[in-house]
Amino acid sequence: MSGRPWVLREAALAATQAFHYEVAILPWGATEPHNLHLPFGTDTIQAEAVAAEAARLAWEGGARVVVLPAIPMGANAQQLGTPLTLNLDPSTQALVLEDVVSSLEHHGVRKLLILNGHGGNDFRQMVRELQASTEVFMCVSNWWTVAPAAEYFEVPGDHAGELETSVMLHLAPEWVRPLEEAGPGNARTFRMRALREGVAWAPRDWAEVTGDTGVGDPAAATAEKGRRFVEVVARTLADFLTELASADLDDLYE
After folding, report:
1. pLDDT for 163-214, tens place per residue?
2. Which of 74, 82, 162 is nearest to 120 (CA)?
3. pTM score, two decimals?
4. What is the rounded end-to-end Cα distance, in angstroms, of the chain?
5. What are the start-end ranges of the H helices in 37-190?
């Protein structure tokens, strides 16, 4: 059978007729610059690749999961000061999510994992609102927080730093420019202590925060670090997907 049957954009009709998919995964990324060395599609590439690997592992364990085509634009209103960043407002994202969920419900897929790849995206309130009007069970994961990054990277970084650069060197090295071309990823912080320490939160004006669009130094990144991190993240997600596939939605609580 051509393609990977757990990746919808590769699967043929024969695959969708042969299998009953129990769980759908929706990778959701962004289109924005990532320092001077990573591509604009970094968030989407990573989310889609992690989803596909997690689905493969879950599939091998007997869980019938399917990775939906990734959504390549995210909530980037504060990054529009950087060239060719594309933005979907959260209200627009909510409408897109509603239509995807409606389609899944129509086709009998009752479980959905939104696999987020962009720090500016936040689907929790969307899910709270939408869950009340659908039978599709929804959950959300930020893939880069699934495993403890500090165990794999010296300084993971917040954006295009060691973590993301290592993962891209593993997943798509042909799209990574030489690290000596990268900026240092220096970032300004809020003057107000409460905002620096997490007592309060406010969105950052990206053009004011960083000169090269990076937050975190990518210099220590290696493909091997990225491989190790992706492997543990994919395995952890696969275990969850396997459990989710067999879960009784009428009996979710102990």
Report:
1. 999 999 999 999 999 999 999 999 999 999 999 999 999 999 999 999 999 9
2. 74
3. 0.96
4. 40
5. 42-60, 90-106, 124-131, 162-171
**Sheet of 137-142, strands arranged across:** 65-67, 23-28, 111-116, 137-142
Q: Supply the Cα-derived Rg of the chain in whole angstroms.
A: 19
| Selection from 117, 129, 62 nearest residue 91 by Cα | 129
Instruction: Tell how far CA 164 is from the center of its chain.
Output: 12
Residue 172 C-beta-side C-alpha neighbours within 13 Å: 20
Count Cβ atoms within 10 A of the Cβ of residue 249 and give its class: 0-12 exposed, 13-18 middle, 19 or more buried: exposed
- For the domain 13-246, what is the CATH superfamily, name and number? Creatininase (3.40.50.10310)
Taking the C-alpha atoms of residue 161 and residue 223, their distance in angstroms, rounded to an integer, is 13
Domain ranges of the chain: 13-246
What is the C-alpha to C-alpha distance for residues 130 and 73, in angstroms, rounded to an integer? 20
